[in-house]
């Protein structure tokens, strides 16, 4: 019988010496806790700062958000940090898709322990308004009629919006050309200018352009319609059954962190995410507050790795 990967991932936590874990948990935390994440102003940073305030109150210790120039630096720092619960990581899909694309200094499953799934959010499939399509079904038909003539943008090679488009291409059986940019801003400028015709965008980055008519939204990438975007259909329901891709963010600790500390952090994070004001702030930012067990986050990451691995292999994506 095959044992699910996430069970193996969580196994060292459950098998720790409980006596030592309880002792560690009783006086934790007795100094400030750091949450490391990517650069200031991004989605990971926003989430880390939203959660830091209620955590500071419930832990009765200062919770400090530390930014690095890139998420990779934060990941590497936490991976090498003492496993004592004082250096935590808030990260999204890049944490587990990065090692699939190139050789890195960390292994997601070996170097980190999951604490809680924090948020999930669909992306939007947006097109230039000159494109004569209003549904996903029409977009697929147009792409099949004009193979290799339509372009899609991405913020970089291997980015989540790149993988979202490659999954779309694979499932729809269409030939759409990838144009990578240095950041989502540059990709959106090119989309608005008509140099590329479609893009899988975070809601916050395109809301103003959609309202002004500079861009058109066809669907969201969640499996079911979401309250985050009332009235919008899904890619799956409007032409590509089975399609689903979400932006998932979670909190992680270094491998070896005592079970009692993981349990305490999980309890406090879930409680914070269930607070009305926290839910409202995240909802307005286009994300659904979740809060989960460590095992549920582990299972979500395993599922994401499986989907991303298949997409990357089929598309031949590699970062040198």
Describe the protein in words.
There is one protein chain. The protein folds into two domains: 5-121 and 247-315, 3-Layer(aba) Sandwich (D-Maltodextrin-Binding Protein, domain 2); 124-220, Periplasmic binding protein-like II (D-Maltodextrin-Binding Protein, domain 2), CATH 3.40.190.10. 46% of the residues lie in helices and 18% in strands. It is built from 13 helices and eleven strands. α2 (18-26) crosses α11 (259-273), α3 (43-59) packs across α11 and α8 (160-172) packs across α13. The longest helix has 22 residues, at 294-315. The strands form three sheets. A six-stranded mixed beta sheet has the order 2-1-3-10-4-11, sandwiched between helices. It has a three-stranded antiparallel beta sheet with strand order 8-5-9. A two-stranded parallel sheet has the order 6-7. The protein is of the alpha/beta class. It starts with a helix and ends in a 5-residue tail after the last helix.
Task: Walk me through the topology.
Blueprint: H1 5-14, H2 18-26, E1 33-37, H3 43-59, E2 63-67, H4 71-79, E3 87-91, H5 94-101, H6 108-111, E4 112-122, E5 124-127, H7 136-145, E6 151-154, H8 160-172, E7 177-180, H9 184-193, E8 198-201, H10 203-212, E9 216-220, E10 246-254, H11 259-273, H12 276-284, E11 288-289, H13 294-315
Parallel strand pairs: 1-2, 1-3, 6-7
Antiparallel strand pairs: 3-10, 4-10, 4-11, 5-8, 5-9
Helix pairs in contact: 1-13, 2-11, 3-11, 5-13, 8-13
């Amino acid at each position: 019988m095959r044992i699910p990967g996430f069970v193996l991932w969580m196994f060292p936590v459950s098998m720790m010496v409980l006596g030592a874990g309880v002792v560690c948990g009783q006086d934790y935390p007795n100094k400030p806790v750091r949450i490391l994440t990517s650069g200031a102003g991004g989605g990971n940073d926003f989430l880390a700062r939203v959660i830091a305030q209620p955590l500071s109150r419930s832990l009765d210790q200062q919770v400090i958000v530390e930014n690095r120039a890139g998420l990779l630096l934060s990941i590497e720092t936490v991976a090498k940090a003492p496993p004592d619960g004082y250096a935590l990581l808030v990260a999204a899909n890049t944490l587990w898709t990065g090692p699939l694309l190139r050789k890195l200094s960390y292994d997601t499953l070996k170097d980190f322990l999951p604490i809680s799934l924090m948020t999930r959010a669909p992306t939007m499939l947006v097109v230039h308004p000159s494109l004569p399509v209003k549904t996903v079904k029409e977009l697929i038909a147009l792409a099949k009629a004009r193979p290799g003539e339509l372009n899609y943008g991405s913020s970089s090679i291997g980015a989540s919006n790149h993988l979202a488009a490659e999954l779309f291409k694979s499932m729809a059986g269409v030939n759409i050309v990838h144009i990578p940019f240095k950041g989502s801003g540059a990709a959106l400028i090119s989309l608005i200018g008509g140099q590329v015709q479609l893009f899988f965008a975070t809601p916050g980055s395109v809301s103003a352009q959609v309202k002004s008519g500079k861009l058109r939204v066809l669907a969201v990438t969640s499996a079911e319609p979401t309250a985050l975007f009332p009235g919008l259909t899904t890619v799956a329901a409007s032409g590509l059954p089975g399609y689903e891709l979400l932006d998932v963010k979670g909190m992680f600790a270094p491998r070896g962190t005592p079970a009692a500390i993981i349990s305490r952090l999980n309890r406090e994070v879930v409680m914070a995410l269930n607070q009305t004001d926290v839910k409202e702030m995240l909802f307005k930012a286009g994300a659904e507050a979740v809060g989960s067990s460590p095992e549920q986050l582990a299972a979500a990451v395993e599922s994401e790795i499986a989907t991303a691995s298949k997409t990357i292999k089929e598309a031949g994506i590699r970062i040198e």
